[in-house]
Design a protein that fits this description.
single chain, mainly alpha, 4 helices, membrane, GtrA_CellWall_Glycosyl
């Protein structure tokens, strides 16, 4: 039951991160006309930093003596997730012609399992 609560919380944090990611991506891409893939990366980075702190405190109730190491591990897992996300975004948008923001949402959903599993087992698991 505890793991289900953590999955639920991780999902809630992920949704808030997704809103932040989409908002930043939209502003950078649509208003500042930055390349859509660069905007996607920038939105991701801000959301990942936000998600680390909320997951650290709320989802996993972490009490590590080395928060910096936890952040580095979280960010490494997130970067691998970003690579997966970017590959899927490219595949869905360029290859299958799915609308950019729908393709971005699909990529995020696909990468959720990677993000939770790696953080649960290798970063915050006590």
């Amino acid at each position: 039951m505890e793991v289900l609560i953590k999955i639920f919380r991780f999902g809630i944090v992920g949704l808030t991160g997704m809103v932040l990611d989409f908002a930043i991506t939209w502003v950078l891409k649509e208003k500042l006309t930055i390349n859509k893939y660069i905007a996607n990366i920038m939105g991701f980075v801000v959301a990942a930093i936000n998600n680390f702190y909320i997951n650290y405190i709320w989802t996993f109730n972490a009490s590590s003596t080395n928060m910096q190491l936890d952040f580095v591990k979280f960010f490494v897992f997130a970067l691998i997730g970003l690579a997966l996300n970017s590959a899927l975004l490219f595949l869905f948008h360029e290859k299958y012609k799915v609308h950019f923001y729908l393709a971005k949402a699909l990529a995020i959903i696909c990468v959720f399992a990677w993000n939770f599993t790696t953080n649960y087992f290798f970063n915050f698991h006590s």
